[in-house]
Amino acid sequence: MKGGALVRVAAAGDAGEVRRLLAAGADVDERTADGRTAVTAAALGDHVDAARALIDAGADVDLQDAERNNPLLVCGQTGSVAMLREILRAKPDLTRTNRFGGTALIPASDRGHVAMVRALLETAIDVDHVNDLGWTALLEAVILGEGGPPHRQIVAALLEAGADVNLADGDGVTPLQHARRRGYGEIARMLAAAGAR
Fold it and tell me: N or C terminus: which one in the chain shows less Cβ crowding within 10 Å?
């Protein structure tokens, strides 16, 4: 199969055409010039049925494209728990990292995807993984969040999952210090109650 036809139909969310191409012999892991697979394209468009068809056909969900995206990492960006459930059926490598060196939990935390954070925390994902910026999911929820209800719920979920409240950024600034600097009183109280310094 040439020309990335399977990737194109997956990106369009046409599950029926995905199945037809696979039945006709398309390589389930075909890649475009930038390394994108059909299952990653489906995840980017939140096309759950197309992703299901690809996973049922044995798609490798760990393959990463030139931007270091794969379906699991895309879920951290989009917040689609329905897509995550499909990806988890394929037993993805939870340690794979995006172009910033972060696992799926980190973008989910900074973007305020409460349900996604909770779903990821049901897996064996590392709650204290540090990305290339020197930030954990907890730090990103504080630094890049706006301090409102979604990020407060995410901080609570991370704390409940055992996040290290005193794991500082590369400059030695802790989540509590960041919360206080930003005026996020409720988050600061939660962190202090969890033993943060």
Answer: C
Report the candidate in 125, 31, 29 with the shortest Cα–Cα distance to residue 73. 125
Residue 28 one-letter amino acid: V
CB atoms within 10 A of CB 171: 7
CB-CB contact of 38 with 44 (8 Å): no
pTM of the model: 0.95
Q: Comparing C-alpha atoms, which of 39, 32, 89 is closest to residue 60?
A: 39
Backbone region of residue 113 per phi and psi (left: phi > 0; alpha: psi in -120 to 50; beta: other values): beta
Q: Which of 142, 145, 144, 128 is nearest to 178 (CA)?
A: 142
Q: Within 13 Å of residue 104, how many CA atoms lie on the same side as its CB?
A: 35
- pLDDT attached to residue 1: 37
Mean of all residue pLDDT scores within the chain: 96
47, 53, 56, 57 alpha-carbon torsion, rounded to 10°: -120
The answer to whether residues 97 and 67 touch, using CB atoms and an 8 Å cutoff, is no
- Give the pair of three-digit tokens for residue 32: 């475009």
pLDDT in tens, 34-93: 999 999 999 999 999 999 999 999 999 999 999 999 999 999 999 999 999 999 999 999
Contact 100, 68 (CB under 8 A): no
For 93, the token pair is: 């490598």
